[in-house]
Amino acid sequence: MSEQLPFDGLKVADFSWIMVGPTTAKYLADHGATVVRVESASPPDRLRAAGPYKDGVPGTNRSQFFGDFNTSKLSLSLNLKNPAGVAVARRLITWADVYIESFTPGTVDDLGIGYETARSLNPSVIMASNCLMGQSGPAAAFAGYGYHASAIAGFYEVTGWPDLPPDGPWMAYTDTIAPRLLAATIMAALDHRRRTGQGQYIDAAQVEMALHFLAPQIADFNVSDRVVSRDGNRSDTMAPHGAYPCKDDDQWCAIAVESDEQWNALGHVLGDPAWASDARFQTAAGRLRHQDEIDGHLGEWTSGKSAQEVMHLLQSVGVPAGLVQRSSDLLQDPQLAHRRFFRYMDHPEMGNIPYSGHQFRIRSYDSGPRFPAPLLGQHNELVLRDILGMTDEEIAEALAAGGIA
User: Fold this and answer.
1) Which DSSP symbol is given to 156?
2) Given 30, 97, 175, 295, which residue is catalytic?
3) Which fold would CATH assign to domain 241-324?
4) Is 30 a catalytic residue?
5) By percentage, how much of the chain surpasses pLDDT 90?
6) Could you say which of 3.30.230.10, 3.10.580.10, 3.40.50.10540, 2.30.29.30 is the CATH number of the domain covering 11-212+337-400?
7) pTM score
8) Distance between CA atoms of 159 and 167, rounded to whole angstroms?
9) pLDDT tens-digit map of 283-311
């Protein structure tokens, strides 16, 4: 296996926080880039104050929510409200190939480290700004989290049950989508710089990066004026389609029947009960019209079996089925174990803990995290002295002035 990683030699200044920017930088860090994660103790990254915590004990360095998105990074703690901290930040931007930030639009300009300043310090720098609504326009100042962007983008209206309020997809949904697109955009900018020597400024709006996942619904409205809304786990084209109760407490299996052939195969597994042969259920259109009745029969069958058994029985005859897993199940999942998705590493305070890997494998090198997430300010001396070349006197002055926080 090659020891050369694709982003060896790439230098990244990560001024972002929460999830989108840090996860974007994690892609680069895990694949070889030197990523300096700029943080502050007042306040620390919001995720450092969010669980789950190791052993349930809160602490700035004990959140695995933060840890999972910040592997393979160096931590530098700066006070960006202090001129001495801003001076160090400018040195870091001068050093970097890529500069990522996720403050409210206008904040980095107010701090004196906006794009015009960055470009004057480093003409070929690639700067990426990420926020909910983009850097310009009437909604640019709207601040919040991925939950808010997900609601504005339309995901909450279409997720949940028709007799209940909007439920929304699990997690701050746009936070999980945007890093994948932003990382790819940065890679495209790096390729452009390699060919032309030119830097870039990337203005990434979470709402815009997520909207394409609603393309079918948006297209439907554009051509038919149909406004889709919440319909639980059901599909417009497939039935049965849902999560069905299984034996034991709160155990479920998701089942989807895509065709008449799969419907017949499902009936055989069930023992060809009379109800499955009902003429009303022999076409997709008929099954869609009578979903409540089918779900009742199917739920009676699944409730007598374990979710694992239901999944294996149906998969063996070509019917899509999957048990509904918890996080504890995922950690023990044999397929994820085979692909080494989770990587156990020794964290300075939390000990040996699992970190998530990536959703792909690439031949010839290991694409997992290289080392655990850092303690707050863990690498101050390394970054200031070895990366930025500051002298002991310069470091002491920055500390005395309150720039290192």
Assistant:
1) T
2) 175
3) formyl-coa transferase, domain 3 (3.30.1540)
4) no
5) 94
6) 3.40.50.10540
7) 0.94
8) 6
9) 999 999 999 999 999 999 999 999 999 99
